[in-house]
Sequence to fold (595 residues):
Amino acid sequence: MAPLRILLCGDVLGRLNQLFKRVSSVNKSAGPFDALFCVGQFFPDSIEGLEEFNGYIEGSSKIPIPTYFIGDYGVGSPKILSAVLKDPSNQGFKMEGFRVCDNLFWLKGSGKFELHGLSVAYLSGRRSPTGAQFGTYSQDDVDALRALAEDPGTVDIFLTNEWPSGVTNGVTSNVPSEISDSSGSDPTVSELVAEIKPRYHVAGTMGVYFDRQPYANVDAPHVTRFLGLASVGNKDKQKFIHAISPTPASTMSKPELRAKPPNTTLSPYTNVDKAAPPDGATKRPGDSTSESQYWRYDVSQKRQKHGDGNGDRLCFKFVSSGSCPREKCHFRHDEEAMQQYSRGVCFDFLNKGKCERGPDCNFKHSLQEEGGRSASGAASSNRSRECWFCLSSPNVESHLITSVGEYYYCALAKGPLLPDHALIMPIEHTPNTLSLPQECEKELERLQNSFRAYFKKQGKEAIFFEWVFKRGSHANLQVVPIPSSRASLVQDIFNLAAEKLGFKFTIIKEGRQALRTQFDRSCSLFYVEVPGGGILSHVVEENEKFPAQFGREVLAGLLNVADRADWRNCKDSKEEEIKMVERFKSGFQEYDPNQ
Fold:
């Protein structure tokens, strides 16, 4: 396969006229080029730059070649990108980019996709403790890239906004004075690039051009080339646009991949400090300053027995499957961690000593004895301390609870998709609603019928869905009201989303009893109860990458509220949540079987 012709660009800062004038010139003299990838801030620095920027968004100015950006921050970005997410053509899963306008695509969050055979991975946004919807990346984005690093195949290009900490380590050529220290670099990016091992790593934000000497990767035959690019129109006239012609690694021979230029250095990341824990995390007694505080699984102080380097970090492949394909793995193969993971313990809890996913995490957050008992005491005591949904837990948000029955209780969802988005949860700490006794099912049926009647009076239909994870902790059946006018579209949009993920739903016409009969507790399952009484179900295989928020994301698309697909973007103050609960209870009271 012939090499592709790719243009790379640093921080655009909204200067699209200058950028695309240069791109058109380069494309005419040395092209044609297949794509342009932009790293660093893409949007303007000031409101004065919006008129020029909006000219391209609105179509009065044209973009000459397909252009992809990850710097989703700057003036005007929230308004423009919110509109992008609401565009019906952008519904579903778009690792290859959300279309902003002709030839312009936003790479959101993190992901990996193929462009003409070229494997491209990216981390959008910047590191920030705020968790804003635009312009920052989340721990979920980082975890997704870690999982992608386990996939076979070589990543050709990795795009990040911020530079990796330590990238100048081992450089023998001159390093620009502007980057002589580590300010503005990101240790998380260092960790990711060391795991992903791309052939090219491209970053912006530093405002300088730096073409690092190639470096050798640990446990990979190919070298990595790092490119830092200056900003468009910078006053020092440093290089902001760069052309490469990579042949996709998937089409290269082993000798071609192994070729090392004579100026190749060792990897700069072998001794880089790990990312620090988030603000507010406390250091455990006994931790030395030289140890990683981020990867903190330390049962019985066993990390001291496992070599050096990354030996204190668990190998996800080994922990999750019991084997590792690497000839020489620098991560720890810990059989006790593997057993704990098989008992449903959260990998982040094992690896870091804590989990930051909150109620999104379906795993357990304490060590488990065989049979599911907590290693630190009685299982009920552990549930009380750790579970977000147990009524006896100090973590439960009791102000969201609307009613409590004998076997189930109801609560409004935190960060709701829309008003009256509710949860039905078993009082017993159990991982699903399908394997509970028949008397529990009867109470659940009464609750579901109550929600149907309540929403019907408002001209709406109730959609019920549940993500049953086989290592899950506390079940929650979600209830989302949709306008009756859209009820006929529910099955079609779920089928379309399934097709995009590469699977087909099984249709169960006989209802929940048939689903309960077919349910295999050893497997994970997603199901949705659609209007008319049918159920769409999908058994999720062990190694299948299935989005935990799949049901919510699909309904967000149906309701044209894609910007609310992530509950963390929709959180209200406690005072507002209390008001929503009171409004819901006043309307639902006459239907509630628990009253």
Q: What stands out?
A: Residues 408 and 420 are 18 Å apart (CA to CA). The chain has a mean pLDDT of 83.
